[in-house]
Amino acid sequence: MKAVRVHDYHKPPLVDEVPEPTLTGPLDVIVKIGGAGVCRTDLHILEGQWAEAMNPELPYTIGHENAGWVHAIGEGVTNVAVGDTVILHPQPSCGLCLACRRGTDMQCTGDAFFPGLSNNDGGMAEYLRTSARACVKLDPATNPADVAALADAGITAYHAVRKAVPLLYPGTAAVVQGAGGLGHIGIQCLAALTATKIIVVDRNPEALELAKEIGADETVVADGSHIEAVKDLTGGNGGTVVFDFVAEQGAEYDAWQMTAPAGHDFIIGYGGEFRAPTLDFVGGEKNVIGNIVGTYNDLAELMVLAQAGKVTLHTRQYALEDAVQALDDLDHGRVRGRAILVP
Amino acid sequence: MKAVRVHDYHKPPLVDEVPEPTLTGPLDVIVKIGGAGVCRTDLHILEGQWAEAMNPELPYTIGHENAGWVHAIGEGVTNVAVGDTVILHPQPSCGLCLACRRGTDMQCTGDAFFPGLSNNDGGMAEYLRTSARACVKLDPATNPADVAALADAGITAYHAVRKAVPLLYPGTAAVVQGAGGLGHIGIQCLAALTATKIIVVDRNPEALELAKEIGADETVVADGSHIEAVKDLTGGNGGTVVFDFVAEQGAEYDAWQMTAPAGHDFIIGYGGEFRAPTLDFVGGEKNVIGNIVGTYNDLAELMVLAQAGKVTLHTRQYALEDAVQALDDLDHGRVRGRAILVP
Amino acid sequence: MKAVRVHDYHKPPLVDEVPEPTLTGPLDVIVKIGGAGVCRTDLHILEGQWAEAMNPELPYTIGHENAGWVHAIGEGVTNVAVGDTVILHPQPSCGLCLACRRGTDMQCTGDAFFPGLSNNDGGMAEYLRTSARACVKLDPATNPADVAALADAGITAYHAVRKAVPLLYPGTAAVVQGAGGLGHIGIQCLAALTATKIIVVDRNPEALELAKEIGADETVVADGSHIEAVKDLTGGNGGTVVFDFVAEQGAEYDAWQMTAPAGHDFIIGYGGEFRAPTLDFVGGEKNVIGNIVGTYNDLAELMVLAQAGKVTLHTRQYALEDAVQALDDLDHGRVRGRAILVP
Amino acid sequence: MKAVRVHDYHKPPLVDEVPEPTLTGPLDVIVKIGGAGVCRTDLHILEGQWAEAMNPELPYTIGHENAGWVHAIGEGVTNVAVGDTVILHPQPSCGLCLACRRGTDMQCTGDAFFPGLSNNDGGMAEYLRTSARACVKLDPATNPADVAALADAGITAYHAVRKAVPLLYPGTAAVVQGAGGLGHIGIQCLAALTATKIIVVDRNPEALELAKEIGADETVVADGSHIEAVKDLTGGNGGTVVFDFVAEQGAEYDAWQMTAPAGHDFIIGYGGEFRAPTLDFVGGEKNVIGNIVGTYNDLAELMVLAQAGKVTLHTRQYALEDAVQALDDLDHGRVRGRAILVP
User: Fold this and answer.
1) Each residue of A289-336: pLDDT tens digit?
2) C209 with C222: CB under 8 angstroms?
3) Do A185 and A153 form a contact (C-beta atoms < 8 A)?
4) Which of B17, D185, D251, D262 lies 20 to 30 Å from B315, alpha-carbon distance?
């Protein structure tokens, strides 16, 4: 089969002919890929930024936003059958540690892995080996290519919003910093799950235009006056919750400044450094909340929203063979929404 | 091996010679039993009360409170190894449905089973087949016979108390109705996990005496004046939470009467019928909370308390061959604490 | 001024000429009434059903759903000023007991009162005496007559829905039993605050028609087959939360039958008797949740929804002098939505 | 009466003869002081550190940890009567804003004040003017001097622990960094409210000795190897919750390093700067939680613990006239526990 493999960091990947994956354990599932999202993390992988942390043996196949159809299952698999349409949680987890048993899969302390990022082949290929614990069954009518990007970008935005729901009752304000791929999903999730006032901050007026169409109540151009603008829109307080999808290049300070007393600054993006006097935490009783991808159930719930039309994605499809082009388009800002490889 | 099997309802079980269980699936675990608790539910099984609901094929082996040592494991088992000391959650769950993924195992909608109660052999035997998902690993020094009863009676009491912890801050009062096996564990859990005022109600002054030793702040004899007595001890309000370990023969009405405005009546026992005007729920904003056994993590947490000496059990050991005697002793009120069969 | 006063139970009230109320304490507020809702509870008062519980001295003025403009304030009042447009929480609370300090006003153990129901004159009059703690300030452009009914019917429905929000994530189902005044507000609140599937059950097909327009995903005629119909719409489970706005004449049993395992039956209506085997609470881990009116903050939050157009009320205005006609119309089912008296 | 007043920053206060305070509003309460705690914040006030933020008119009376007996009450006061023994919440709040109505007094957006810190005379005097909303009624047998320090140091430690209770189930670990006045109260609260493993970190071996006596399960000397030591005691993870009572001079970095994945770093002390890569929040889903004093109900609950003997304070009494000596002793580390001025 064809697979998009990294051979050397700082070089484009190659589309190789490789053997199809096979079942190796009782909970294994082989999925025929219907769509594989192209993510900024893939660019970071190619730049070698994840080499040390993940240490994959080269060459290996990338692709961690996957959906498709079940092709083969191990003898212990009871939740999906051959032929089922599925979207895949990016991190199959062990299912037996206390974190998995509590429902916090991403904190799995067992043998979790992350195909396409850890030392396991990913989904930019015709077939992928994953585990039963990663498979969320979909309406058979779903086109995997339409939803694949929800497997990582979507679940991450949903997870953060879901955690914030109890904080965002009527009369509160949510600030979304960064109206890119994740931000757009976050806005739709906020509109679907709360009646909070949604304020979106971004440098790009076009992104703000789209934000308005999908649920933003107010938009603010990040032009240096945005902290004041957000305070003006919130009676001087700032956001009850600030979702920082950027979290680098100074945005992380802005997010904290835009957070109301007793409010919560949700960090979802990364790259920068958070700094604040400890007095800020005491005087204002303000909080910083970490966020990592989402749980299996988060993905299942997000798919309910997606199949009800409450969260939609703008996508552009590429043939699997055109993976290098898709990565290049992403790198040069030529993709609106999400690029999806279709084998 | 030897096994205590039900051949006919309304007759004592027989201690039969049967083949040892073998591995049948990748997550199977065979446990060499070190101790099997004898529970009132076993008496109900013998009386045929569970026949219709569970429909087990006779003869079958009873025993659902089990601890021992891992004897053999299926190929997919990663959380325990042969030789490990383990206590067993009574209901192995599928691990793949949304309820399991959320951490609410007892609501498993997959292929959960309940050895010794459903159509599966239980632990009053030398060996038991269960699943990796039921095994909680213990300190190797633990004697399984000392803790086996925590597998069902213990987890049930712990689960209810654990759910109530956020309600039981200082200044509140918890009423424990029924100071038997479950009640005694509940009292110890309340003392370990909260600083609430613990009021214990029982007909038996001896049980109340023991209750005082293990954490009760106040005790009340259930002699007809107990509702008034509880109100007097709570400034006229009643309990913030009432744990009803009886829930039959009128105790279920008493529990509701002893529940404070905006309070919670936790039903844990069963057998009776709850009745109240709907106005009671509106005028007082009172609640009734259901409780079923507990989750895998509840059992793991309870074992932390047990191994720290914060929850202890009074037990009396019987040889496996003396199972009928143990059941008879239980039925005639001759067991203080919990009877444990040791193969 | 004019006031609608009960002189004798089982007789229509009279519209009397009485002195205007005056300030009697430092937190008192006199409100010029702009609208007073006519509620089924007013009919019950006239029938003497509240006589024993509340024991008001006759004659007294009824009316507990009030909005208007601040006319005079006591020396300790800091949250409103003369001229402010306000809606009034129905139960002024003491502000000093632990329940008030916790934010659960309705559980006030101090000197709370309920004008129009307890021994205090209500709002079917030109002026009403209440407390600073009852006043929620509104946009000055609001017409009090448009929102008055939210003060009691609205807050009650909102309070129940607000408590249920954490239970109603995507993939769950909420069942609304009773699509009358409270139910219609409840449906709108559910649509605004959650992405759950909203299933509405009522005997009246017309009420269901309206339910669909304001947010119901599914409607079910309560014709005897409705429990099965709800199960069919929920994969055989029933509602994750059932909001029982009826809770009498058998509806209270239906609500419990329609509640899913591990689900919550919210009782909001009253009049009937709840009955269930205690085993139901144990086997299914099901819960019954009481609900009483709502807190001050609930009302403030509901007004945010109302002023954003997310919750609207169908009302029919009557002159204060026509109070008897309005009560009679309500009693004979001639009012669609809510009757409002306007002085 | 006598009062300890700041006349100039950077100079010792003077014990002046001043007029007794009088009632000025309907919710005012005059308290005869029975004990006033001497706090490190008083030293900071004298150094002028709070001058800009609080801007009090000099001279003014300090003292914000107060208990005593009610001497006079305004006409709107219903919760205390003349002669009652009371401890005083340090920040009387308005009771009418949404924060007060929600139970989060410290976020009061009305006319809250902080006697002894804001521009209002404090309690190092014979009498103090405060508000009904600050008064927590005590058992008349209580000696105010024994509990006064709980009014600020105590409530602050309790508030943080109370918020963390749901996170600290059996099997978790709580790290207390800083075993001084607040830390000691925090340890006792943790022991009373949870069954978590309590690990205390401090530079001072004597403080650790005391920590063991009052509930610490493990103690670690902060000698540079303490981060590793904490990890060793927690299976390599770190604390589920870290209570940082220091939060300056590098301790704030240690606290973060000692926080487990998905854990919470509670900042209670202040003076330093928190810094961490945003990736830390994402990779580990770790959180930083702010904490400010506590609510009125926190103080009421803490007094339940204190009156049950579950939280005790080591105090050393000084005559009011010896205030300068007491401040000097505190400044030079000569006070073990808390210095209390007794008029």
Assistant:
1) 999 999 999 999 999 999 999 999 889 999 999 999 999 999 998 888
2) no
3) yes
4) B17
In chain B, what is the greatest distance between 2 CA atoms, to the nearest angstrom?
61
* Contact at CB, A107 and D171, closer than 8 angstroms: no
Concatenating the DSSP letter of every residue in A103-171 gives: T-GGG--SS---TTTSSS--SSBSEEEEEGGGEEE--TT--HHHHGGGGTHHHHHHHHHHHHGGG--TT
D166 touches chain B (CB under 8 A): yes
Tell me how close the Cα of C216 comes to any Cα of chain A, in angstroms. 14
Express each pLDDT in B1-60 by its tens digit. Answer: 999 999 999 999 999 999 999 999 999 999 999 999 999 899 999 999 888 888 999 999
Is residue B174 a contact partner of residue B198, using CB atoms and an 8 Å limit? yes
β-pair type (C338-342, C315-319): parallel
Tokens of D3: 């009062």
Strand partners, D4: D15
ipTM over 0.90: yes
H or E, element range at B287: strand B287-290
Q: How far is CA C95 from CA B291, C76, C108, C209, D203, in A?
A: 35, 13, 8, 43, 44
Residues in chain A: 343
Helix (H) or strand (E) holding C327: helix C323-331
Mean pLDDT within C232-255: 97
Residues in D 183-242 with any Cβ partner in A closer than 8 A: none
**Rounded Cα gap, residues C157 and C301, in angstroms:** 12
Structure tokens at C108: 């006030």
What tokens appear for B171 in the block?
Answer: 């200044």
Angle CA C137–C138–C142, to nearest 5: 150
Contacts of B297 in chain A (CB under 8 A): 98, 101-102
Contacts of B99 in chain C (CB under 8 A): 262
Q: How far apart are CA A244 and CA A237, in angstroms?
A: 17
Q: What whole-number distance in Å separates Cα of residue B185 and Cα of residue C61?
A: 55
CA angle at D5 for the pair D1 and D6, rounded to the nearest 5° = 170
Q: Nearest CA of chain B to the CA of A102: how many Å?
A: 4
**Cα maximum dimension of chain D:** 61
Give the Cα separation of D139 and C4 in Å (integer): 47
Residues in chain A with CB shorter than 8 Å from the CB of C195 are 192-193, 304-305, 308, 310
Q: How confident is the model at residue A278 (pLDDT cuts 50, 70, 90)?
A: very high
Q: What number of C-beta contacts closer than 8 Å exist between A and D?
A: 118
Length of chain C: 343
**Rounded-to-integer distance, Cα C33 and Cα C14, Å:** 18
Residue pair B116/B61 in contact (Cβ under 8 Å)? The answer is yes
